[in-house]
């Protein structure tokens, strides 16, 4: 059954089954995306709860022009960004100034990050700043396009690309220092 | 396997079971509360608005007892026949 059919059925009857189906379909994905942004399981859970409440209270505003999943993810990211803005962690994530000057080093290929072991990746992510971690996870875990990231964070695309380039370099450097030098 | 996808799988696995069900219950509770509040507002909202209007010096909806009925307003038709004058006895 398509999402739109279930949404329409929920709007008409507010049936618990429709709620259950939509929740089962998207709860994990919403939680995973909230983890990308907020990094803490407790906060991600609270955000998931708020997001689903918001989704079901504003189902009437969903017009079906975009995919239901896209609508849900935009609510998810916007709510998480609101949470970050309200917290003291927002300065770094939304800063348009970049601390380090651009370097001319060759770009680290995506495969270099994707081929890491999960425990290695976790270690690398822990060494990054929150903003760096968020950007990297949005791009490679959630598959958000550069343009969408730029829109969400209120930056331009080239700034996001440059930041990602630097973060990948830093991640590779951390990884090599910790795991490759031993071998 | 892409390590980022493996990371996502681990996030999803961590959110299964009780945690997932717990969040669902909390969402359901919030939705029920919102529905209850909405029904209260729907039920008592007009009365409250009327009361506030009356308190601020306006005229409450219920105060106007001179509503014209549909049949009475039919006589307002400018092109229609004038209403017949009732004839009294004698």
Automatic annotation (TrEMBL), chain A:
Domain RNA polymerase sigma factor 70 region 4 type, residue spans: 120-170
Keywords: DNA-binding, Sigma factor, Transcription, Transcription regulation
Domain named RNA polymerase sigma-70 region: residues: 22-89
Stored SUPFAM superfamilies: Sigma2 domain of RNA polymerase sigma factors, Sigma3 and sigma4 domains of RNA polymerase sigma factors
Membrane spanning residue stretches: none
GO biological process: DNA-templated transcription initiation
Keyword presence, Cell wall biogenesis/degradation: no
Family statement: Belongs to the sigma-70 factor family. ECF subfamily.
PANTHER family: RNA POLYMERASE ECF-TYPE SIGMA FACTO, RNA POLYMERASE SIGMA FACTOR HI_1459-RELATED
Name used for this protein in its record: RNA polymerase subunit sigma-24
Species in which this protein is naturally found: Neolewinella marina
TrEMBL record, chain B:
Region named Disordered: 63-90
Biased composition (Pro residues): 80-90
Protein name in UniProt: Uncharacterized protein
Organism: Neolewinella marina
Top-level taxon in the UniProt lineage: Bacteria
């Amino acid at each position: 059954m398509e999402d739109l059919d279930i949404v329409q059925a929920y709007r008409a009857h507010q049936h618990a089954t429709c709620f259950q189906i939509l929740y089962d379909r998207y709860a994990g994905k919403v939680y995973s995306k909230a983890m990308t942004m907020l990094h803490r399981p407790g906060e991600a859970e609270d955000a998931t709860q708020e997001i689903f409440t918001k989704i079901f209270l504003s189902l009437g505003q969903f017009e079906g022009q975009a995919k239901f999943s896209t609508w849900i993810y935009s609510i998810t990211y916007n709510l998480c960004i609101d949470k970050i803005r309200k917290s003291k962690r927002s300065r770094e994530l939304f800063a348009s100034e970049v601390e380090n000057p651009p370097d001319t080093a060759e770009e680290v290929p995506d495969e270099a990050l994707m081929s890491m072991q999960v425990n290695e990746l976790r270690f690398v992510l822990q060494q990054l700043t929150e903003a760096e971690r968020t950007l990297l996870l949005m791009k490679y875990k959630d598959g958000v396009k550069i343009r969408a990231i730029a829109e969400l964070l209120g930056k331009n695309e080239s700034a996001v690309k440059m930041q990602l380039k630097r973060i990948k370099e830093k991640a590779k450097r951390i990884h090599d220092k910790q795991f490759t030098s031993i071998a | 396997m892409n390590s980022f996808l493996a990371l996502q799988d681990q996030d999803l696995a961590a959110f299964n079971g009780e945690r997932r069900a717990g969040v669902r219950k909390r969402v359901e509770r919030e939705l029920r509360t919102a529905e209850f509040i909405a029904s209260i507002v729907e039920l008592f909202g007009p009365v409250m608005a009327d009361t506030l209007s009356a308190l601020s010096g306006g005229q409450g909806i219920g105060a106007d007892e001179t509503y014209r009925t549909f049949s009475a307003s039919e006589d307002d038709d400018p092109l229609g026949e004038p209403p017949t004058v009732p004839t009294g006895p004698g």
